[in-house]
Amino acid sequence: MKKRHLFVAASAFMLLAACNSSNDGNGQENTSEDGNSDTGSITVTDIQGEQTFTEPAKRVVALDWTYVENLLALGVQPVGVADVENYHKWVDIREELSDDVVDVGLRTEPNLEAIAQLEPDLIISANYRSENIEQELKDIAPMLIFDPYPEESKGITHYEEMETTFREMAKVLDKEAEGEAILAELDEKYEEGKEKIESMDLETRDFVLTMAYTDNQAPVFRLFNPNGMAPAILEKIGLNNAYDSGSFELYGYATTGVEELLSVEDANFLHIVQDDDGLFEEGLANNAVWNDLNFVKEGRVYALGGDTWPYGGPLSAMTLIDRTVEALDQ
Amino acid sequence: MNEQGKSVFYSFFLLIVGLSLLLVISGLHLTQGQAQFTLKELVLGLWEGDGRIQSVVLGVRMPRVAVGLLAGGALAMAGLVLQTLTKNPLASAGTLGINAGAYFMVVAAAVFLPGINSSYPFIVSFLGSALAALLVFSLAGRAMDPVRVALTGMIVSLLFAAVTSGLQLMFEQETNGLFLWGAGTLIQNDWSGFRFALPFIVCAGLLLLLLGKQFDLLLLGEEAAAGLGASIQRIKAAGWLLAIVLAAATVSVAGPIGFIGLMAPHIVRMLGIRGHRQQLIHAFVWGAFLLIAADVLARFIQPGSEIPVGAITALIGGPWLMYLAYRTGKRYKGQNQTLRGNRSKLSFPWLITSMVAVLLVVAIGALAFGGGSFYGFSEIVSGALFDTVTVQFRWPRVLVAFLVGALLALCGVLLQSVLRNPLGDPSILGITSGGGVGALSVIVLFPSLSFAWVPVGAATGAGLAIVVILLATKRSNWEPISLALMGVAVSAMGSGIIQILTVKAGVGVAPVLLWLAGSTYGMNWQDVWFLAFVLIALVPISYSFSRQLDVLALNQEVSVTLGLRIQLVRALVLLLAVGAGAAAVAVAGAISFIGLLAPHAARGIVGVKTRFVVPVSMLLGGILLVTADLLGRFVLYPKDIPSGLLVAIIGAPYLLYIMKKL
C-alpha cells in the first residue's frame, strides 16, 4: 500500500518538478545582491562556493545525520535519510523524525535510485561521505556539501562551522527567522547551563569528554580535543576542557587507550557509551590503571548516554548540555 | 667434547643469546605507553612501590608483553609443526588460512550470535581455525604438495577475508570494535587474556615437546617412519590438532597475526638447530622476540596510537616470504599441471547462443529492478527500461558488471594458460592486492586528491605489483610456479599494507572496505566507455594468441621444439592479462574468484582450446557478476551488498568443488 502511495506522490512531484524546471531559466538571471529577497533567488554558500536557488528547498534528502537534525530543527521533515535505524540509536534530539521519511540505505553507500525516486529538490551531504558519488547525486538534484571537520588551515573552528552550516541550511529552506530563533535559544541554554553549573558545588569544573567503546575486549577512548566541537559547547556553560592531545585533531578527538587518562584523572569524566557495549562491565572492571584513576576512585565518572551525539547541530548541542548538567547535578 | 655434546652446548649458547635479546626487547616494550615515564622512573617506581607506576606497569603493560610472549611463541611453534606436517617451508597458521578462518568465525559470531564471543572466545576461534585447516587439508590433497598447499591456503584465506569484510561492511556498528583487532593487536586490559591463553598454549606446547622425537621421524619420510614403528596417522593428527589449538588460542587473545609462524622456524633452521624438541624451544623464543619487536616498532612509528602489530609483521614477513618463495620456486621447477577440460556434446554456436540468451534474461531482470520493485512486463514493453533514471543509474551498473566480469574472466584465462596453473587468478598474482594498495594510498594518504584518482592509483599499484613479481622471478625464466608463489608473497605484503591503511583511515574506513570487497555501486557511463574500450582493444589481441597459448599449455619442452619464442609470448600474454585485470580492479575494486571460476567452468563445457574458452568464460564471468549485482541490490534493499561479496558467496561452493577435483 505504502509503495503505491509513494508512486502516486512521486508522479505528482514529477509534474511539479517539471513546472519548477521551466521556471529555472528565468530565476537564475535575477540574482539579487542580498541573496534572499522575497521575489528573487536564494544564494547559499557551501564548500563548492556560492550556489543559487530559485525557490526554497522543499523536498530534501539528508545523507548525514547532522543535516537531518538541522532540518528537523528548522521544522522541515526530510523526504529521505540515510540509515534511519542507526540515527535513532545514536542521535536523540527533541524533534522526532517522522515515520514516513524514507530510508535511502547506508550513509556510506546510499541507494541512488531510491534517492532519485523521491524526486528531491535538494540533497545535503558531508564532503567525506559522498565524494565518490558526487556527480551521480548532482544529476538527481542540486547538492549542498559541507565540511563538518574543517582543517586547521581553513581558519574556521568546528563549532563555527556548525553554526555557519546551520544558517546556510536555514537560508536554503527560507527559514532564516526560525534558524536565528534556534540559535538564540541555544545561547539562552548556555546561560542557563552556566548558572546551574555555578550553583552546583562541584569539586572541579574541569572535564574530559569521551566517546568510548570496546575494541575487542580492549577499551578505546575518543578523547575530545580543544579543537573539537563538543568541548567548545561545554566550555560555554562554564566548564574547562582538561584534555589536550597537543596537536590539531581532524575529527576533534584523539583515539587513545586507558593509560592516556592518567593525564586527566583529576577532571570530571563525561562519557558517551552505548548501553550494549559492556565497556565498564567487561573491559574496565579489572583494569588496574582504570581502577586507580582519581576520577574513578572519587566517583566523578558521569554517563551522558549512548544517544548523545557530539558531532551534530544546535539540537544535539542542547541534548549534550541537558545531559551534562543533569549528570553533574547528583 | 663429543659431537653431540658440542651441538647441545651450541644450542644452549644460542638459547641464552635469544633469551637475552627477548629480555632487552621486552624491557624496551615496557617503557612504551601513553603515560610518559622514563625507564628510571619506572624502575624506581616499581622498587619503591609507587602505586601509580605499579598499576601502569603491572596492570596494563606487563600483560601486553606477556601476551606478546605467548602469542609469538605459540605461532612460531604452530608454524614449525605445520611446516613439518605439510613438508612445506611456506606453511604457517597465516598462510594456511587458519588465522583468517578464526577471524571470520569471530566476526560472524559478533554479528549473528552476539554475546557468544565474550563467553566462549576460544571455542569460536577454534571452530574457525579448524574449519579453515580442514578445508585446506581436504582440498590440497593427501600429497601435500608445497605449492598446492600454499595456493590453496591463499585461496581459503581470500574466501574468508571476502566474507569477513562483507560482514563488516553490512554490520558496521556490530563489528566496529573488530577493525583494529582484525589486523592483530596485543592490547590488553588486565591479565585475563594472558590467563585465558596460558593453559592452552602451555599444554599444547608441552605435548608438542613430548612428540618432538616423533616429528623427527616424520621428516625421514612416511615409510621410514612407519618402519621405525611410528604411527604416522596418529602423530599427524595430533600435530594438526595441537597447531590449531595454538593458533586459535592466539587468535582469541590477539587477533590474526601472520608471518611469525613463517619466520621464526626459518631463523631456527638457519641457526642450525636440529631436532624438533630443540627447534620448538628456540622457535618459541624467536617467535616471541619477533612479535614483541614488531610491537615495539609499531608504537615507535606512531607513538600514542595503535598500528596493529599484525600489519607490521606482514610488512617484515612479506619480503621474507618472497625470498622463501624464490628458493622454493627454484626447487620445484618444472612441476607443471596441465589444464584439463571436457568437451560437451553441445555444438559451439548453439552453446554461445544459449548463453547469450541467459545473459539477456539476467540483464533484463537486472535492468528491471530498482527503487525497491521490479518493472512489470507491460512497463518493460512500454519502454520503462529507457526512462531517465534507469538509463542514468541502472544501465551503467549492469553494463559495468558485465564488462568487469568478462575482463576478469579474460584475465583468468590468460593467466592460467600462461602459467599452466589452474589456480591462476588476478587475486593470486598480486594484481588485486597491488591495486588495493594503490587505491587505498590515494584514499588514505592523499585525502585531498579527488576520487577520480582512485582508479589511477589502483592501476599503478597493480602494475607495480606485477613488475615486482616479474623482476623477482626473472632468474627462473618466469617459471609458472615461481610466478605463482611470488604472487602469493606480494599479495601477502600488499594485504599487510592494506591493513595499516585501513586502520589509518579511521572514520573514512567504510568506502575503503567497500572498495576492497569489490562493488559495482555508483557506476556511471564514463566507466562503461572506459571498460568497453579496454575490452574491445584486448579481446582481438588475446584471440590472435590463442594458437600459441594452446601450444604453451602442452608443456615447455614441446613449445620449444615447436619454435615458439616462449619468453616473448609469455611476457606479452601476461601484459594482456594485467591490462584486463587492472582495468577491472581500477573500476570495481577487488572482486576475486571470477578469474578463477569462469575459466574453469568454461573448460568444463568446451574443453581446453583457447579460442573456445575465451568467449565462453567471458560470457560466464559477465553473467555471474550481473547476477551478483542484481542480488546485491535486491536482497537487503535499500542497502547495497557489494557484488564482490556475493560473487564470493555464490562462487565459493563451486570453487571448493573444483579445487577438490584438481
UniProtKB/TrEMBL annotation, chain A:
<dbReference type="InterPro" id="IPR051313">
    <property type="entry name" value="Bact_iron-sidero_bind"/>
</dbReference>
<dbReference type="GO" id="GO:0030288">
    <property type="term" value="C:outer membrane-bounded periplasmic space"/>
</dbReference>
<feature type="signal peptide">
    <location>
        <begin position="1"/>
        <end position="24"/>
    </location>
</feature>
<keyword id="KW-0732">Signal</keyword>
<dbReference type="InterPro" id="IPR002491">
    <property type="entry name" value="ABC_transptr_periplasmic_BD"/>
</dbReference>
<feature type="region of interest" description="Disordered">
    <location>
        <begin position="23"/>
        <end position="43"/>
    </location>
</feature>
<dbReference type="GO" id="GO:1901678">
    <property type="term" value="P:iron coordination entity transport"/>
</dbReference>
<comment type="similarity">
    <text>Belongs to the bacterial solute-binding protein 8 family.</text>
</comment>
<keyword id="KW-0813">Transport</keyword>
<feature type="domain" description="Fe/B12 periplasmic-binding">
    <location>
        <begin position="59"/>
        <end position="330"/>
    </location>
</feature>
<protein>
    <submittedName>
        <fullName>Ferrichrome ABC transporter substrate-binding protein</fullName>
    </submittedName>
</protein>
<dbReference type="GO" id="GO:0005886">
    <property type="term" value="C:plasma membrane"/>
</dbReference>
<dbReference type="Pfam" id="PF01497">
    <property type="entry name" value="Peripla_BP_2"/>
</dbReference>
From TrEMBL, chain B:
<dbReference type="InterPro" id="IPR000522">
    <property type="entry name" value="ABC_transptr_permease_BtuC"/>
</dbReference>
<feature type="transmembrane region" description="Helical">
    <location>
        <begin position="483"/>
        <end position="516"/>
    </location>
</feature>
<keyword id="KW-0813">Transport</keyword>
<dbReference type="GO" id="GO:0005886">
    <property type="term" value="C:plasma membrane"/>
</dbReference>
<feature type="transmembrane region" description="Helical">
    <location>
        <begin position="149"/>
        <end position="171"/>
    </location>
</feature>
<feature type="transmembrane region" description="Helical">
    <location>
        <begin position="280"/>
        <end position="301"/>
    </location>
</feature>
<protein>
    <submittedName>
        <fullName>Fe3+-hydroxamate ABC transporter permease FhuB</fullName>
    </submittedName>
</protein>
<feature type="transmembrane region" description="Helical">
    <location>
        <begin position="643"/>
        <end position="659"/>
    </location>
</feature>
<keyword id="KW-0812">Transmembrane</keyword>
<feature type="transmembrane region" description="Helical">
    <location>
        <begin position="452"/>
        <end position="471"/>
    </location>
</feature>
<feature type="transmembrane region" description="Helical">
    <location>
        <begin position="94"/>
        <end position="113"/>
    </location>
</feature>
<feature type="transmembrane region" description="Helical">
    <location>
        <begin position="395"/>
        <end position="415"/>
    </location>
</feature>
<feature type="transmembrane region" description="Helical">
    <location>
        <begin position="241"/>
        <end position="268"/>
    </location>
</feature>
<feature type="transmembrane region" description="Helical">
    <location>
        <begin position="528"/>
        <end position="546"/>
    </location>
</feature>
<keyword id="KW-0472">Membrane</keyword>
<feature type="transmembrane region" description="Helical">
    <location>
        <begin position="191"/>
        <end position="210"/>
    </location>
</feature>
<dbReference type="GO" id="GO:0022857">
    <property type="term" value="F:transmembrane transporter activity"/>
</dbReference>
<feature type="transmembrane region" description="Helical">
    <location>
        <begin position="427"/>
        <end position="446"/>
    </location>
</feature>
<keyword id="KW-1003">Cell membrane</keyword>
<dbReference type="GO" id="GO:0033214">
    <property type="term" value="P:siderophore-iron import into cell"/>
</dbReference>
<feature type="transmembrane region" description="Helical">
    <location>
        <begin position="347"/>
        <end position="375"/>
    </location>
</feature>
<feature type="transmembrane region" description="Helical">
    <location>
        <begin position="217"/>
        <end position="235"/>
    </location>
</feature>
